[in-house]
Amino acid sequence: MRKAEPLNPETFATCVPLLRAYPFKPYAHYSCRVGEEALQQLFLDRVQTSIKSSAHSALWVPGSDGAQGLAVWTSLAWDSQQLGVSAGRLDYLIASGDYQNQYAIKEVLLMAVLKTCADHGIQHLTARVHASDLSTIHLLERYGFITVDGILTFSLDITDAHWPSPPAGLKIRLAQPEDIEQMKAIARSSYIYDRFHSDPCIPRAVADELHAVWLENSCLGKAADAVVVAAENGRILGYVTCKIDRQSTEYLGLTVGTIVLVATAADARGRGVAKALTYSALDWFRDQGVDIVEVGTQLRNIAASRLYESCGFRLVASSLSLRRWIDHA
Question: I need a labelling partner for 326 at 20 to 30 A (CA). Which of 51, 142, 236, 253 fits?
Fold first, then answer.
């Protein structure tokens, strides 16, 4: 009979073959460029680091020749503070074998995860799952998770690209402390498709303020490496937040940057502000030695997808975000 057991760093080696075979590794869409071994080493390091962290909890299903399955979930302090309830994230749900075998092993793991989360007081549990990981998606749906978001990931190699100058009268620069309040006002009114606004358990005002705080933390260097703004006559019209994955450089020999938050003031839309900001963010990334820039946008956000495609980005991956509300007796 299969049984989920706690996994500690000392027994991590038993999971290595399982993790090496996992097809949905970070940056798997660059395998032809960086090689499978580099992707494996990056993934192994990330999972091992997670297991060592006090905020994470790991469970595994032992087998006769190693691990049959692994689950890792994280307690999210910042999300909990913003949402007003204890929040967590299911980071990994991995199993060996065909669909039926994976489903059965993951079911054992998920039941144990849900019990552990309940014991820790977690109420809001999310998971971001590769769109092709059908056994995980189907299992989560069966156990009360609802889909709150679909993400399309776009990618652009910026090593030899060039972009036009911003429209006349539009000043593009890095954000300054005195810009923050204007930017937070834009953040509060700009997001409607994300997983927080799509979650029926999260009030609209809470989701709005969450993005404002996220944007402020980005400006303060806590959630981003840089924030690029567009200004006109001293007024902020929009922003882009930028983050660099230094770990990708170490393992892949390829530095990957990510555009995280993008927003334009409502009355400034349709003037090319978002495109000018995107191009300027790409310039900033290139100045930092970044090779490839990725950006994710919601499946429903057709305008954003068209924007990134018009800037030269190409679709490379897709995923779903699911959430379960865990009731406590």
Answer: 51
Residues 137, 129: contact at Cβ < 8 Å? yes
Q: Tell me if domain 5-144 and domain 155-317 are identical in fold.
A: yes
**Tens of pLDDT along 116-148?**
999 999 999 999 999 999 999 999 999 999 999
**Sign of the CA dihedral with 217 first, then 221, 226, and 230 last:** positive
CATH fold of 5-144 reads Aminopeptidase (3.40.630)
The answer to whether 236 and 183 are in contact (CB under 8 A) is yes
Neighbouring residues of 239: CB distance < 8 A, sequence distance ≥ 6: 175, 183, 186, 215, 227, 228, 229, 230, 261, 262, 263, 277
Domain limits, the chain: 5-144, 155-317
The CATH number of the structural domain formed by 155-317 is 3.40.630.30
The model's pTM is 0.94
pLDDT digits (tens, 9 = 90+) for 154-184: 999 999 888 888 888 899 999 999 999 999 9
- At 53-62, the pLDDT tens digits run 887 899 999 9
Q: In 3D, which of 98, 95, 44, 106 has the Cα closest to residue 66?
A: 95
